[in-house]
Amino acid sequence: MTAKWRLWRTAAACCLMAAMATGCWDSKDVDNRLLVGAIGLERTAPSGLRVWFRFPLPKSTQEPSSSDFFTISQDGRTVPDALNRVKYKLPKSLDATSTRAILLSESLASSNLDPYLEFAIRERSVPLDALVAIVRGDMERIFRGRNPTGELSGIYTKLFFEPYAGGIPRKNVTRLWEVYAKVTNPYQSNLIPILTESAQNSFEFTGNAIFAGGKMVGELDKDESLLYEMFTRRFHDSEVELMNRSDVRIVHNRTRVSTAWKDGAPIIGLDCSLVATLIDSSRSQRQTAADITAELDARLSALADSMFRKTRQAEADIFGFGNRFRSRLGPEQADRWPVLFKSARISYRFHIDLRNTGLEFLD
């Protein structure tokens, strides 16, 4: 009994010591971490790179009238290299898992994006749902300037695009995982929003950059971007369209896409149904509901012509039509799609239902 009792006592002591030894010994308290709100990437030389970081600061660490954020930059040969080098400058651990936005300079966008974003996909150090945008202007000014509405760094950029906040149909929401997926997909190209410096706000939306082969090759303006949102079924909320004699608000959109293959060429048809309401009309010139509908149809058709002319000239299928032809093209023919898209027969029709006109068109 004595030997057995000693055995049990030894086992209990070992279990107790093992329980006491457990714990998260490699964890860092939140007050010992710097949470990244936004990351900026810009080229400094043909092979150089500068990475910007913006960290929100908790109120407990702020002095009266001090800033609510901290900004630092670091040069490096690659993004992981800059991430490692900047740690030598920081008194706390750098935590990129809270990043809300990745801003790319226009010069960097003109080169291949893949080497600059691949680290995030492989290492998963940056959230894959982080917003991505192109910056036209001084990256330092955007990262060092205060947010006019008071939001913390990163949150301002997120709210700028999100449909539940400052987002509108013309503002194309693009996330990190979408950018990387399209860079590696020969059947679809990227369309990334462009932000420019603003004298009143941190930045403003001016259009979308067209990418082909991972490089920026063209640009859609704000009006053409609205057509992209409609044709790709990304339209949300509502949008005002200004015309010569009236203004209407587009409140609903549904687009049906049909595809066919004839004589070795793709055929793409778009049938776009819109619901619009009248919000303003000309008092100096009499018009009917049919006149307003015809003018809106002509306006949208002209924008669609311009949008497809730019994208087909650049051989950039930003709409993802090529994904519908995967079964007709084998893996060895995937690289042919950009050329096929340029020569594709694309047609589109608009069906406009004008509502809420009140007594405007009564005799």
Topology at a glance:
Elements: H1 2-21, E1 33-35, E2 38-43, E3 49-56, E4 69-76, H2 79-86, E5 93-95, E6 101-105, H3 106-109, H4 114-123, E7 131-136, H5 139-144, H6 155-161, H7 176-183, E8 191-197, E9 203-212, E10 215-221, H8 222-231, E11 239-242, E12 246-262, E13 265-281, H9 289-313, H10 337-343, E14 345-355
Helix pairs in contact: 4-7, 8-9
State the order of secondary-structure elements, H for helix, E for strand: HEEEEHEEHHEHHHEEEHEEEHHE
Mean pLDDT: 85
Per DSSP E runs of 2 or more residues, the count of β-strands stands at 14
Described by strand count, sense and barrel closure, the largest sheet is: 8 strands, mixed
Low-pLDDT stretches are: none
Percent of residues in helices comes to 25-40%
**Coarse structural class:** alpha/beta
Number of domains: 2
Between the first and last Cα atoms, what is the distance in angstroms?
110 Å
Q: How much of the polypeptide forms β-strand, as a percent range?
A: 25-35%
Counting H and I runs of at least 4 residues, what is the number of helices? 10
- Structural shape: globular
| Spatial sequence of strands, sheet with the most strands | 4-3-2-6-7-8-9-10
Query: Radius of gyration over alpha carbons?
Result: 27 Å
What this model shows, in words?
- This protein has two domains: 29-220, no CATH class; 238-363, GMP Synthetase, Chain A, domain 3 (2-Layer Sandwich), CATH 3.30.300.210.
- It has helices at residues 2-21, 79-86, 106-109, 114-123, 139-144, 155-161, 176-183, 222-231, 289-313, 337-343, and strands at residues 33-35, 38-43, 49-56, 69-76, 93-95, 101-105, 131-136, 191-197, 203-212, 215-221, 239-242, 246-262, 265-281, 345-355.
- It has 363 residues and is an alpha/beta fold.
- The protein is globular, with a radius of gyration of 27 Å.
- The chain starts with a helix and ends in an 8-residue tail after the last strand.
- A hairpin with a 3-residue loop joins strand 11 (239-242) and strand 12 (246-262).
- An eight-stranded mixed sheet has the order 4-3-2-6-7-8-9-10. A four-stranded mixed sheet has the order 11-12-13-14, with helices on one face. The chain has a two-stranded parallel ribbon with strand order 1-5.
